[in-house]
Amino acid sequence: QVQLVESGGGLVQAGGSLRLSCAASGRTFSSYAMGWFRQAPGKEREFVAAISWNGGSTYYADSVKGRFTISRDNIKNTGVLQMNSLKPEDTAVYYCAASYTTARNMGVMTDSKKYAYWGQGTQVTVSS
After folding, report:
1. Less Cβ crowding at N or C end of the chain, within 10 Å?
2. pLDDT at 1
3. CA-CA distance, 68 to 19, in Å (whole number)?
4. What is the C-alpha to C-alpha distance for residues 8 and 80, in angstroms, rounded to an integer?
5. Cα separation of 100 and 84, whole Å?
6. Pairing of strands 122-127, 10-13
7. Is residue 114 helix, strand or coil?
8. How far apart are CA 22 and CA 36, in angstroms?
9. d(CA 111, CA 66)
C-alpha cells in the first residue's frame, strides 16, 4: 500500500505559477513510478505528466509540455509538479498517482488504469 497526499493547490492568475507536492507513505515510494492527472468539471480525468521510479524518464501531455515540470525526491518520499505560465484551461482538480511498474519509457504510463494508488486531489484554479 502507498498513501499519497497532495498539497499546494490554490487560486492563481493566468501566467502565474504553482508548485504541487505529493507526499508518499507506506511501501517504498522509490519503487513506484508517479503520475499526475487532472480533472476539470464535466470532463474526464486526463494525464498530465509521469516520472519513472528513479527520475530517469519523464513524459508530459502536449498541453503542458514546456510549462510544467515533474520531479521527485526519493529520500523525502515526495513528488513535485511545478506549473508555470498557467492558463485558465489548467483549472482542475489535480491528482498524484503511483504505479508499481518496470516500464522505462513513461510514455506508456498515460493511462490512469495503470495506477493503483491515488491521492485525494488538490484544486487548482487559474483566473483570466
Report:
1. N
2. 83
3. 9
4. 10
5. 29
6. parallel
7. helix
8. 9
9. 21
Which grid coordinates are listed for 111?
493511462
The answer to whether the CB of 79 falls within 8 A of the CB of 34 is: yes
Q: Would you state the pLDDT for residue 100?
A: 92
Could you tell me if 88 and 31 are in contact, meaning their C-beta atoms sit under 8 angstroms apart?
A: no
Locate cell 487548482: which residue?
A: 124
Tell me if residue 52 falls in helix, strand or coil: coil
Report the alpha-carbon angle 27-29-31, nearest 5.
Answer: 95
pLDDT tens string 4-20 = 999 999 999 999 999 99
Q: Are 83 and 18 in contact (CB under 8 A)?
A: yes
Q: For residue 95, what is its C-alpha cell? A: 491528482
Would you state the cell numbers that stand for residue 118, as one nine-digit string?
491515488
For 14-52, how does the pLDDT look when each residue is reduced to its tens digit (9 = 90+)? 999 999 999 999 878 889 999 999 999 999 999 999 999
